[in-house]
Amino acid sequence: MVHRQDYRRREQAYVKHYVLEHYLQQLALKIGHYRPGTTLNYIDGFSGPWQQATEALRDTSPHVALTQLCAARDLLRARQIELRVRGMFVETGREAFALLQGLLDEQFASVESAAHNGEFEAHIQQACRFAEQGPQPFAFVFIDPTGWTGYGLKAITPLLKIRRSEVLINFMTKDITRFVDDGESVALQSFIDLFGDATYREAWRGLADLDREDRIVETYCDRVLRAGGFAHCVPTVVLNPRHDRTCYHLVYATRSLHGLVAFRDTEREVTPEQRAARAEAKQRERLQRGQTEMFEAPVMETSYMAELQQRYHRRARAALADRLRDAGEVEFPTLVGDGLRLPMTCLADVKDWLNAWRDAGEVEFLGLAPGERARAIDKKHRVRWRGGRLS
Fold first, then answer.
1. Contact 50, 148 (CB under 8 A)
2. DSSP letters along 294-345, please?
3. How far apart, in Å, are the Cα atoms of 111 and each of 71, 107, 305, 346?
4. pLDDT-based confidence at 368, cuts 50/70/90?
5. In angstroms, what CA-CA distances link 326 with 78, 233, 320, 355, 384?
6. Rounded to an integer, what distance in angstroms lies between the CA atom of residue 16 and that of residue 201?
7. What percent of the chain stands above pLDDT 70?
8. Which domains does the chain have, with CATH numbers?
9. Which NCBIfam families is this protein grouped with (predicted)?
């Protein structure tokens, strides 16, 4: 389990690892129960470890991921359900690679692992083969670079196209938004590689601030979705620990609406953790400047995260309203997919908005069995617009 105290001065990594830990836990258990005998192939394209604060490397992505996958495997085995766990790791640094090998050999010897010292893009074909090995293979690909190079969209497309797979990409927003519009930069080719072609800047032309940032991230998500043939590709926000601005986005791609719902549930779980980590980081900075405080760190936290959530809730609610007004009658899973495209929005939010519109007489629910009240994404439930503002 990740612990905040292991991530002082890199609280953004704590948030990232919290998401990775809790989502992988759910994924492994659900896959194991749904399809016993599955081989879960975990692929980490920029493994490290680096900037670790613990001797056991428990604050690194390989340790976080394998700990959760092995725990899920062992829990399923206790229930007589077989889940095979395998791991492929790619790291370019020699010192980090030596630490990685030691971690795999000493702490995760029970996992069939393949470690490669080199560039991720040079190992895409090996990753594709690895992803499809084993009985009933399912791959989870984690791409966690320190910048925006080394995972060009065309280069990783064969891996994205693996049908039974999900992908989590660390999109380094703070750096990308700073340099992406510089047409004369020596980094121009790297952005063409990142987005897949040279037309990427058209999508956010004329936009500024958060509107521009959101459109840049949405553009990347859309290109990943199309390159891999995913059903859903969405971002979640990881903020700068000490300032009210974005550090990076975690971009998640899946072909399953159930996966999208689970990812947004994980995001909801991490929100209070991110808020607490930011509050503590800001307080430490103030105390180091000699400032004295009467209140606990959370009391002094800004409202920025709440304002972001309100922003995305307004957009998500408007997307649902537009869909209903345009189509008149919409399947419930379609509305869920529309609502959960935006960060900080989960299935419970979508249900709450629809319930409010139903209570106001603006929509009605169709397809529910007698006595059935809850709408489900795996049933033929529908929502019909009956007129009104859907505000």
1. no
2. SS-HHHH--SHHHHHHHHHHHHHHHHHHHHHHHHSEEEHHHHHHHHTTSTT-
3. 12, 9, 39, 34
4. confident
5. 50, 23, 10, 19, 11
6. 27
7. 93
8. 4-281 (3.40.50), 302-385 (1.10.10.10)
9. tcm_partner (TIGR04474)
The pLDDT score that the predictor gives to residue 296 is: 54
With beta carbons less than 8 A apart as the criterion, state whether 343 and 311 touch. no
Q: What is the model's pLDDT at position 289?
A: 65
Cα 325 to its chain centre, rounded Å, is: 30
Dihedral sign (CA 383, 254, 227, 211): positive
Give the Å distances, CA to CA, from 391 to 37, 160, 315: 47, 38, 12
> How far separated are the first and last CA of the chain, in Å rounded?
41
Q: Give the type of residue at 33.
A: H
- % of residues, the chain, pLDDT over 90: 78
Residue 236 is predicted with a pLDDT of: 97
The pLDDT score that the predictor gives to residue 376 is 82
Sign of the C-alpha dihedral computed for residues 77, 58, 116 and 42 taken in this order: positive
Supply 230's token pair.
Answer: 């995913």
Query: From CA 91, how far away is CA 113, in angstroms rounded?
Result: 14
**Does residue 88 register a pLDDT over 70?**
yes
Res 297: pLDDT:
47
Bridge-based pairing state of the strands 363-366 and 246-254 = unpaired
> Are 111 and 87 contacting, i.e. CB atoms less than 8 angstroms apart?
yes
